[in-house]
Amino acid sequence: MRIVEARVIVTCPGRNFVTLKIVTEDGVSGVGDATLNGRELAVVAYLEEHVVPLLIGRDPARIEDTWQYLYKGSYWRRGPVTMTAIAAVDTALWDIKGKVAGLPVYQLLGGRSREGVTVYGHANAATAEELMPEIARFVARGYRAVRVQTGIPGLSSVYGVGHKGDSYEPANAALPEEAVWDTALYLDQVPRVFADVRAEFGPHLRLLHDVHHRLTPIEAARLGRSLEPFALTWLEDPVPAELQDGFRLIRQHTTTPLAVGEVFNTVWDCHELITSQLIDYVRATVVHAGGITHLRRIFDLAALHHVRSGSHGATDLSPVCMAAALHLDLAIPNFGLQEYMPHPPEADEVFPHGYHFEDGYLHPSETPGLGVDIDEELAARYPYRPASLPVNRLTDGTLHSW
Ligand code: CS2
Ligand code: MG
Which Gene Ontology molecular function entries are recorded, alphabetically (predicted)? Predict the structure, then answer.
Protein backbone atom coordinates (compact mmCIF):
# COMPACT_ATOMS: atom_id res chain seq x y z
CA MET A 1 0.00 0.00 0.00
CA ARG A 2 1.26 3.53 -0.81
CA ILE A 3 0.25 7.06 0.21
CA VAL A 4 -1.08 8.84 -2.87
CA GLU A 5 -2.38 12.09 -1.37
CA ALA A 6 -2.18 14.25 1.78
CA ARG A 7 -4.46 17.25 2.19
CA VAL A 8 -4.17 20.04 4.78
CA ILE A 9 -7.65 21.31 5.67
CA VAL A 10 -8.14 24.60 7.53
CA THR A 11 -11.58 25.33 8.95
CA CYS A 12 -13.10 27.58 11.61
CA PRO A 13 -16.33 26.08 13.05
CA GLY A 14 -16.33 28.21 16.22
CA ARG A 15 -12.52 28.41 16.17
CA ASN A 16 -9.66 27.55 13.81
CA PHE A 17 -8.64 23.93 13.31
CA VAL A 18 -6.02 22.41 11.01
CA THR A 19 -6.44 18.81 9.92
CA LEU A 20 -4.22 16.55 7.83
CA LYS A 21 -5.97 13.86 5.78
CA ILE A 22 -3.75 11.13 4.31
CA VAL A 23 -5.16 8.95 1.50
CA THR A 24 -3.74 5.61 0.31
CA GLU A 25 -3.95 4.03 -3.10
CA ASP A 26 -6.53 1.60 -1.72
CA GLY A 27 -8.78 4.53 -0.79
CA VAL A 28 -8.21 4.11 2.96
CA SER A 29 -7.76 7.53 4.62
CA GLY A 30 -6.69 8.72 8.04
CA VAL A 31 -6.88 12.07 9.83
CA GLY A 32 -4.57 13.89 12.23
CA ASP A 33 -5.06 17.12 14.20
CA ALA A 34 -2.48 19.80 13.32
CA THR A 35 -3.94 22.72 15.30
CA LEU A 36 -1.56 25.05 17.14
CA ASN A 37 -3.65 27.79 18.72
CA GLY A 38 -2.65 31.21 17.37
CA ARG A 39 0.04 29.72 15.08
CA GLU A 40 -2.16 27.57 12.83
CA LEU A 41 -0.79 28.82 9.49
CA ALA A 42 2.80 28.12 10.54
CA VAL A 43 1.91 24.44 10.81
CA VAL A 44 -0.04 24.57 7.54
CA ALA A 45 3.07 25.89 5.75
CA TYR A 46 5.34 23.34 7.46
CA LEU A 47 3.07 20.51 6.39
CA GLU A 48 2.35 21.69 2.85
CA GLU A 49 5.90 22.79 2.00
CA HIS A 50 8.09 20.37 3.96
CA VAL A 51 6.12 17.26 4.88
CA VAL A 52 3.39 16.42 2.33
CA PRO A 53 5.87 16.09 -0.59
CA LEU A 54 7.82 13.53 1.50
CA LEU A 55 4.74 11.42 2.23
CA ILE A 56 3.67 10.67 -1.32
CA GLY A 57 4.71 7.14 -2.26
CA ARG A 58 5.56 6.09 1.36
CA ASP A 59 4.15 2.95 2.94
CA PRO A 60 1.53 4.12 5.49
CA ALA A 61 2.13 1.00 7.58
CA ARG A 62 5.66 2.20 8.47
CA ILE A 63 4.55 4.53 11.27
CA GLU A 64 7.74 4.44 13.34
CA ASP A 65 10.02 4.83 10.31
CA THR A 66 7.96 7.78 9.08
CA TRP A 67 8.14 9.36 12.54
CA GLN A 68 11.94 8.99 12.65
CA TYR A 69 12.21 10.21 9.06
CA LEU A 70 10.28 13.40 9.80
CA TYR A 71 11.98 13.97 13.19
CA LYS A 72 15.64 13.16 12.49
CA GLY A 73 15.33 14.04 8.84
CA SER A 74 14.26 17.61 9.64
CA TYR A 75 17.64 18.34 11.25
CA TRP A 76 15.88 21.17 13.16
CA ARG A 77 14.33 18.90 15.75
CA ARG A 78 11.65 19.62 18.37
CA GLY A 79 9.56 22.78 18.77
CA PRO A 80 5.76 23.19 18.70
CA VAL A 81 5.40 23.69 14.93
CA THR A 82 7.58 20.75 13.89
CA MET A 83 6.13 18.37 16.48
CA THR A 84 2.52 19.36 15.75
CA ALA A 85 3.13 18.63 12.07
CA ILE A 86 4.73 15.27 12.90
CA ALA A 87 1.84 14.56 15.29
CA ALA A 88 -0.70 15.06 12.52
CA VAL A 89 1.07 12.59 10.23
CA ASP A 90 1.52 10.06 13.03
CA THR A 91 -2.10 10.27 14.14
CA ALA A 92 -3.39 9.85 10.58
CA LEU A 93 -1.16 6.79 10.05
CA TRP A 94 -2.46 5.16 13.26
CA ASP A 95 -6.00 5.86 11.99
CA ILE A 96 -5.16 4.10 8.72
CA LYS A 97 -3.49 1.19 10.51
CA GLY A 98 -6.57 0.65 12.64
CA LYS A 99 -8.87 0.76 9.62
CA VAL A 100 -6.68 -1.70 7.70
CA ALA A 101 -6.56 -4.03 10.74
CA GLY A 102 -10.31 -3.63 11.33
CA LEU A 103 -9.65 -2.62 14.97
CA PRO A 104 -10.10 0.51 17.11
CA VAL A 105 -6.62 1.95 17.70
CA TYR A 106 -6.65 1.18 21.45
CA GLN A 107 -6.63 -2.52 20.52
CA LEU A 108 -3.34 -1.93 18.68
CA LEU A 109 -1.92 -0.24 21.81
CA GLY A 110 -2.40 -3.22 24.10
CA GLY A 111 -6.16 -3.22 24.55
CA ARG A 112 -8.40 -1.79 27.24
CA SER A 113 -6.83 -1.15 30.68
CA ARG A 114 -9.99 0.46 32.16
CA GLU A 115 -13.71 0.69 31.60
CA GLY A 116 -13.68 4.33 30.55
CA VAL A 117 -11.57 7.50 30.47
CA THR A 118 -12.21 9.69 33.53
CA VAL A 119 -12.49 13.30 32.42
CA TYR A 120 -12.63 16.64 34.16
CA GLY A 121 -14.72 19.64 33.19
CA HIS A 122 -14.10 23.36 33.56
CA ALA A 123 -16.17 25.26 36.13
CA ASN A 124 -15.44 28.94 35.97
CA ALA A 125 -17.15 32.13 37.09
CA ALA A 126 -16.24 35.73 37.80
CA THR A 127 -17.08 35.39 41.52
CA ALA A 128 -17.02 32.58 44.08
CA GLU A 129 -20.79 32.96 44.48
CA GLU A 130 -21.40 32.41 40.77
CA LEU A 131 -18.96 29.53 40.80
CA MET A 132 -20.92 27.18 43.06
CA PRO A 133 -23.84 26.55 40.65
CA GLU A 134 -21.28 26.04 37.87
CA ILE A 135 -19.54 23.30 39.87
CA ALA A 136 -22.91 21.83 40.82
CA ARG A 137 -23.81 21.67 37.12
CA PHE A 138 -20.80 19.46 36.40
CA VAL A 139 -21.46 17.25 39.43
CA ALA A 140 -25.08 16.85 38.30
CA ARG A 141 -23.84 15.78 34.84
CA GLY A 142 -21.77 13.01 36.44
CA TYR A 143 -18.30 14.53 36.26
CA ARG A 144 -15.94 12.96 38.78
CA ALA A 145 -13.44 15.83 38.63
CA VAL A 146 -13.83 19.57 38.12
CA ARG A 147 -11.30 22.29 37.35
CA VAL A 148 -12.07 25.49 39.26
CA GLN A 149 -11.15 28.97 37.99
CA THR A 150 -12.54 32.27 39.26
CA GLY A 151 -12.10 35.94 38.73
CA ILE A 152 -9.71 37.86 40.97
CA PRO A 153 -11.14 40.97 42.72
CA GLY A 154 -9.23 43.94 41.39
CA LEU A 155 -8.45 42.37 38.02
CA SER A 156 -10.78 43.04 35.08
CA SER A 157 -10.19 39.62 33.50
CA VAL A 158 -8.23 36.46 34.25
CA TYR A 159 -7.27 33.25 32.49
CA GLY A 160 -9.93 30.61 32.34
CA VAL A 161 -12.93 32.80 33.14
CA GLY A 162 -14.84 33.89 30.10
CA HIS A 163 -17.98 32.87 28.40
CA LYS A 164 -20.63 31.06 30.37
CA GLY A 165 -20.81 27.33 29.86
CA ASP A 166 -18.34 24.84 28.54
CA SER A 167 -16.24 26.45 25.89
CA TYR A 168 -13.66 29.08 26.78
CA GLU A 169 -11.73 30.36 23.78
CA PRO A 170 -8.87 32.71 24.66
CA ALA A 171 -7.73 33.29 21.05
CA ASN A 172 -10.58 35.63 20.19
CA ALA A 173 -8.89 38.56 18.46
CA ALA A 174 -6.73 38.88 15.33
CA LEU A 175 -4.04 40.66 17.36
CA PRO A 176 -3.18 39.76 20.97
CA GLU A 177 -5.47 41.33 23.54
CA GLU A 178 -3.63 42.63 26.60
CA ALA A 179 -4.57 41.40 30.07
CA VAL A 180 -3.35 42.73 33.43
CA TRP A 181 -2.08 40.44 36.18
CA ASP A 182 -1.35 40.86 39.88
CA THR A 183 0.18 37.89 41.68
CA ALA A 184 -0.51 39.21 45.20
CA LEU A 185 -4.23 39.58 44.50
CA TYR A 186 -4.27 36.09 42.98
CA LEU A 187 -2.43 34.40 45.87
CA ASP A 188 -4.86 36.03 48.30
CA GLN A 189 -8.02 34.99 46.46
CA VAL A 190 -7.45 31.38 45.37
CA PRO A 191 -7.19 29.74 48.83
CA ARG A 192 -10.37 31.59 49.87
CA VAL A 193 -12.22 30.19 46.86
CA PHE A 194 -11.15 26.61 47.53
CA ALA A 195 -12.10 26.91 51.20
CA ASP A 196 -15.60 27.93 50.08
CA VAL A 197 -15.75 25.17 47.45
CA ARG A 198 -14.71 22.46 49.90
CA ALA A 199 -17.22 23.77 52.45
CA GLU A 200 -19.94 23.56 49.81
CA PHE A 201 -19.03 20.26 48.11
CA GLY A 202 -17.25 18.30 50.82
CA PRO A 203 -13.89 16.49 50.81
CA HIS A 204 -14.32 13.94 48.02
CA LEU A 205 -15.00 15.83 44.77
CA ARG A 206 -11.73 15.88 42.80
CA LEU A 207 -10.74 19.52 42.34
CA LEU A 208 -8.07 20.96 40.07
CA HIS A 209 -6.76 24.44 39.40
CA ASP A 210 -4.71 25.90 36.54
CA VAL A 211 -2.18 28.60 37.52
CA HIS A 212 -1.29 28.92 33.84
CA HIS A 213 2.46 29.52 34.13
CA ARG A 214 2.24 32.71 36.20
CA LEU A 215 4.18 32.24 39.43
CA THR A 216 7.79 31.94 40.52
CA PRO A 217 8.73 28.67 42.22
CA ILE A 218 8.58 30.14 45.73
CA GLU A 219 5.19 31.77 44.98
CA ALA A 220 3.99 28.41 43.68
CA ALA A 221 5.31 26.76 46.84
CA ARG A 222 3.31 29.24 48.93
CA LEU A 223 0.16 28.61 46.89
CA GLY A 224 0.62 24.83 47.06
CA ARG A 225 1.10 25.01 50.82
CA SER A 226 -1.99 27.24 51.26
CA LEU A 227 -4.12 24.78 49.23
CA GLU A 228 -3.05 21.65 51.11
CA PRO A 229 -6.10 21.71 53.45
CA PHE A 230 -8.32 21.44 50.33
CA ALA A 231 -6.56 18.37 48.89
CA LEU A 232 -6.50 19.30 45.20
CA THR A 233 -6.02 16.54 42.68
CA TRP A 234 -3.55 18.83 40.95
CA LEU A 235 -2.20 22.35 40.66
CA GLU A 236 -1.46 22.92 36.98
CA ASP A 237 1.36 24.82 35.30
CA PRO A 238 2.42 26.63 38.50
CA VAL A 239 5.47 28.15 36.81
CA PRO A 240 6.82 28.43 33.25
CA ALA A 241 8.43 25.03 32.69
CA GLU A 242 11.57 25.82 30.72
CA LEU A 243 13.60 25.54 33.94
CA GLN A 244 12.65 22.00 34.95
CA ASP A 245 14.97 22.20 37.98
CA GLY A 246 12.82 25.05 39.35
CA PHE A 247 10.21 22.51 40.35
CA ARG A 248 12.56 21.18 43.05
CA LEU A 249 11.88 24.34 45.06
CA ILE A 250 8.12 23.82 44.84
CA ARG A 251 8.47 20.16 45.80
CA GLN A 252 10.47 21.04 48.91
CA HIS A 253 7.58 23.04 50.34
CA THR A 254 4.30 21.42 49.40
CA THR A 255 2.55 18.10 48.93
CA THR A 256 -0.04 19.57 46.57
CA PRO A 257 0.27 17.43 43.39
CA LEU A 258 1.63 19.16 40.28
CA ALA A 259 0.51 18.75 36.65
CA VAL A 260 2.58 20.17 33.80
CA GLY A 261 3.04 19.69 30.11
CA GLU A 262 0.37 20.96 27.76
CA VAL A 263 3.01 23.10 26.03
CA PHE A 264 5.57 20.28 25.84
CA ASN A 265 6.38 18.82 22.46
CA THR A 266 8.93 16.10 23.16
CA VAL A 267 10.05 13.93 26.05
CA TRP A 268 13.10 16.18 26.38
CA ASP A 269 10.84 18.97 27.72
CA CYS A 270 9.93 16.83 30.73
CA HIS A 271 12.66 14.23 31.06
CA GLU A 272 14.01 15.72 34.32
CA LEU A 273 10.54 16.53 35.68
CA ILE A 274 9.58 12.88 35.29
CA THR A 275 12.78 11.07 36.27
CA SER A 276 13.22 13.25 39.38
CA GLN A 277 9.52 12.90 40.25
CA LEU A 278 9.14 16.67 40.31
CA ILE A 279 5.60 16.37 38.94
CA ASP A 280 2.68 14.01 39.48
CA TYR A 281 0.85 14.30 36.13
CA VAL A 282 2.28 14.96 32.68
CA ARG A 283 -0.16 16.85 30.45
CA ALA A 284 1.42 16.42 27.03
CA THR A 285 -1.03 15.82 24.19
CA VAL A 286 -1.26 13.83 20.99
CA VAL A 287 -1.47 16.94 18.81
CA HIS A 288 1.48 18.86 20.29
CA ALA A 289 3.84 16.08 21.42
CA GLY A 290 4.55 14.23 18.21
CA GLY A 291 1.42 12.10 18.01
CA ILE A 292 0.49 8.73 19.51
CA THR A 293 3.93 7.26 18.84
CA HIS A 294 5.87 9.83 20.88
CA LEU A 295 3.27 10.54 23.54
CA ARG A 296 3.22 6.83 24.29
CA ARG A 297 6.97 7.02 24.99
CA ILE A 298 6.48 9.96 27.34
CA PHE A 299 3.78 8.05 29.24
CA ASP A 300 5.96 4.95 29.41
CA LEU A 301 8.83 6.96 30.96
CA ALA A 302 6.30 8.52 33.33
CA ALA A 303 5.02 5.09 34.35
CA LEU A 304 8.52 4.15 35.59
CA HIS A 305 8.53 7.18 37.93
CA HIS A 306 5.08 7.22 39.56
CA VAL A 307 3.89 9.93 37.14
CA ARG A 308 0.43 9.62 35.57
CA SER A 309 -1.05 11.07 32.41
CA GLY A 310 -3.29 14.13 32.49
CA SER A 311 -3.54 15.17 28.85
CA HIS A 312 -4.62 18.58 27.72
CA GLY A 313 -8.07 18.65 26.12
CA ALA A 314 -9.07 22.26 25.57
CA THR A 315 -11.37 23.29 22.74
CA ASP A 316 -8.37 24.40 20.65
CA LEU A 317 -7.45 20.73 20.26
CA SER A 318 -9.82 19.33 17.64
CA PRO A 319 -12.15 16.32 18.01
CA VAL A 320 -9.52 14.44 15.98
CA CYS A 321 -7.00 14.94 18.79
CA MET A 322 -9.60 14.05 21.44
CA ALA A 323 -10.50 10.85 19.59
CA ALA A 324 -6.83 9.85 19.37
CA ALA A 325 -6.15 10.78 23.00
CA LEU A 326 -8.94 8.52 24.22
CA HIS A 327 -7.45 5.44 22.58
CA LEU A 328 -4.12 6.08 24.34
CA ASP A 329 -5.88 7.02 27.62
CA LEU A 330 -7.79 3.72 27.55
CA ALA A 331 -4.71 1.56 26.99
CA ILE A 332 -1.84 2.96 29.07
CA PRO A 333 -1.30 1.59 32.60
CA ASN A 334 -0.62 4.99 34.22
CA PHE A 335 -3.66 6.95 33.10
CA GLY A 336 -4.56 9.83 35.43
CA LEU A 337 -7.18 12.19 34.02
CA GLN A 338 -8.23 13.56 30.63
CA GLU A 339 -9.26 17.19 30.23
CA TYR A 340 -12.54 17.51 28.35
CA MET A 341 -13.96 20.78 27.10
CA PRO A 342 -16.85 19.89 24.76
CA HIS A 343 -16.56 21.53 21.33
CA PRO A 344 -19.30 23.81 20.00
CA PRO A 345 -22.00 22.01 17.95
CA GLU A 346 -20.69 23.36 14.65
CA ALA A 347 -17.28 21.82 15.35
CA ASP A 348 -18.85 18.47 16.21
CA GLU A 349 -20.69 18.59 12.87
CA VAL A 350 -17.49 19.27 10.91
CA PHE A 351 -15.73 16.46 12.81
CA PRO A 352 -18.19 13.55 13.11
CA HIS A 353 -16.90 11.23 15.84
CA GLY A 354 -17.91 8.19 17.82
CA TYR A 355 -16.57 9.07 21.27
CA HIS A 356 -19.21 9.86 23.87
CA PHE A 357 -19.57 11.01 27.49
CA GLU A 358 -21.31 8.77 30.03
CA ASP A 359 -21.22 8.70 33.84
CA GLY A 360 -18.09 10.84 34.14
CA TYR A 361 -16.19 8.87 31.52
CA LEU A 362 -15.43 9.45 27.86
CA HIS A 363 -15.57 6.29 25.76
CA PRO A 364 -13.73 6.10 22.43
CA SER A 365 -15.41 4.77 19.33
CA GLU A 366 -15.26 1.00 18.73
CA THR A 367 -15.08 1.48 14.94
CA PRO A 368 -11.79 0.62 13.21
CA GLY A 369 -9.20 3.38 13.46
CA LEU A 370 -9.71 6.48 15.60
CA GLY A 371 -13.47 6.81 15.05
CA VAL A 372 -13.40 10.39 13.79
CA ASP A 373 -13.37 12.11 10.40
CA ILE A 374 -13.68 15.55 8.83
CA ASP A 375 -16.58 16.56 6.60
CA GLU A 376 -14.55 18.54 4.08
CA GLU A 377 -17.57 20.05 2.32
CA LEU A 378 -18.92 21.39 5.62
CA ALA A 379 -15.42 22.44 6.70
CA ALA A 380 -15.16 24.64 3.60
CA ARG A 381 -18.10 26.72 4.83
CA TYR A 382 -16.03 27.99 7.80
CA PRO A 383 -13.10 30.03 6.47
CA TYR A 384 -9.98 30.61 8.53
CA ARG A 385 -10.17 33.61 10.89
CA PRO A 386 -6.91 35.18 12.17
CA ALA A 387 -6.82 34.74 15.95
CA SER A 388 -4.07 35.31 18.53
CA LEU A 389 -3.74 34.31 22.14
CA PRO A 390 -3.66 37.19 24.64
CA VAL A 391 -0.56 38.60 26.29
CA ASN A 392 -0.27 39.45 29.95
CA ARG A 393 1.31 42.42 31.70
CA LEU A 394 1.84 43.23 35.37
CA THR A 395 0.24 46.41 36.66
CA ASP A 396 3.50 48.29 36.02
CA GLY A 397 3.47 47.15 32.39
CA THR A 398 6.07 44.40 32.68
CA LEU A 399 5.35 41.64 30.16
CA HIS A 400 4.36 38.50 32.08
CA SER A 401 3.44 34.92 31.12
CA TRP A 402 -0.14 34.59 29.94
C1 CS2 B 1 -5.48 25.65 29.35
C2 CS2 B 1 -5.72 25.87 27.89
O3 CS2 B 1 -7.02 23.88 29.15
C4 CS2 B 1 -6.03 24.30 29.76
O5 CS2 B 1 -5.48 23.70 30.69
O6 CS2 B 1 -4.16 25.79 29.75
O7 CS2 B 1 -7.01 26.37 27.76
C8 CS2 B 1 -4.77 26.82 27.18
O9 CS2 B 1 -4.91 28.12 27.72
C10 CS2 B 1 -5.11 26.83 25.70
O11 CS2 B 1 -5.13 25.51 25.23
C12 CS2 B 1 -4.11 27.66 24.93
O13 CS2 B 1 -4.37 27.56 23.56
MG1 MG C 1 -3.69 24.49 31.33
Answer: magnesium ion binding; mannonate dehydratase activity
